[in-house]
Amino acid sequence: MLVGLLSLATVTAQAQPQSAKTASLTKNQQDFVDLRFGMFIHFNIPTFMEEDWADPDASPTLFNPTKLNCDQWAKAAKSAKMSYGALTTKHHSGFCIWNTKTTGYNVMNSPLKRDVVKEYADAFRANGLKVMLYYSILDTHHKLRPGFITKQHVKMVKDQLSELLTNYGEVSALIIDGWDAPWSRISYDDIPFEEIYKHIKSIQPNCLVMDLNAAKYPAEALFYTDIKSYEQGAGQHISKETNRLPALSCLPINKTWFWKTTSPTEPVKDPAVLVNDNLIPFNKAYCNFILNVAPNRDGLIDDNALTALAKIGEIWPGNEGRAVLPVFDAPIISTNLAKHRPSNASWSDDMWIMDFGNDDNFKTAWTSNPAIKKPWYEVVFEQEKPFNLITILEKQPAITKYRLEYFTGGNWKPILSGTDSGRAKINRFNTVKGSKVRILIDGFTSPPAIAELGVYNEK
Fold this sequence. Notes:
By secondary structure, this protein is of the alpha/beta class. 20% of the residues lie in helices and 25% in strands. The strands form 2 sheets. An 8-stranded parallel sheet has the order 5-4-3-2-1-8-7-6, with helices on both faces. Strands 9, 10, 11, 12, 13, 14 and 15 form a 7-stranded antiparallel sheet that branches. Strand 7, helix 7 (271-284) and strand 8 form a beta-alpha-beta unit. The longest helix has 16 residues, at 151-166. It is globular. It starts with 7 loop residues before the first helix and ends with a strand.
């Protein structure tokens, strides 16, 4: 086991805002898993187009759901025995469907002139359902995209989240999209994750922060999210056998996330398949299932989707035993100081040199040459930096015994030694300050292959 490792309970307690009404993060994560089943609601300006990615210059006049009825949505969710909803407050093209002061590109300048987020939140609460909100970091209308991001963009994100978390009552979770995704290319440094995470928790400490793109990271740990998410349509599938983290799996009942003109006449997904192949096994694997149901251009859910939801409610008993989460490590939220820094190592195998061990790509790895009996790997900073967390993510589990050291004042000093044989090794310790970090590998079952060595200063 790890020598010098802070206890998980201590780390988690330190991470939580101090409030009499604030639950522990682990309790909020368990509560989320216990919710089991919810309704994703993709409803925004793409509803009025034939593409899910809307024209960023589309006029607000397009958004005109003349029969909008959020109570219908809520009652449809109840018919399926769902326990919450999650509405797309802003999608990738930047149109806000709440009464925001941050931009004129919003619903109040549409023919509707009604705050959809408020009507949704009020309707779902009135029907006994929890309220969650979806928010896209990527915003093509406001040029919040690679090459254009400014401090004003960071302020806009914080101001918009402040409005959503202040004006609409308790928000159980924010489902954030477009962050550190290969298609958005907005890193956790471009829009600083830790700063935004703390901002959210400062307003609503119990609000879970869920990054939809965190599936890029290994399934054994929570990186940049309170809940591990899996978007099935993007090829992200949870392991029902091995998952040990609070998780979310999402899928649309239609072929697409937003409503299309073909949606009312095309078959929706089979309710029995959704229950037996998704909902029931996911719940047993600590995973909440969120099914997207897209309202049409009138602002109503189509009859075929309504029928399917009611059928789900008939098939699914909804009262299986509670899946109690195992012990797991707290989320990692700060910047990876080792990412793309110069690195050194003992002799590598073939082309897999040291640069692959901290390139922010978990599909590549520095691989030790089979001839080396005592492999080592180090990362060099431009100056001494404080840090208190080192992660070792292997391509496959091989390392069984290792030591971590840091370089300061011209000498290498020990941090801890470990015997964790898992693929993801999360090492927390009291803060030290150094200009280099290295791992000395004393035991392994096959030549070590480090996909990513991360160094963090968690606050």
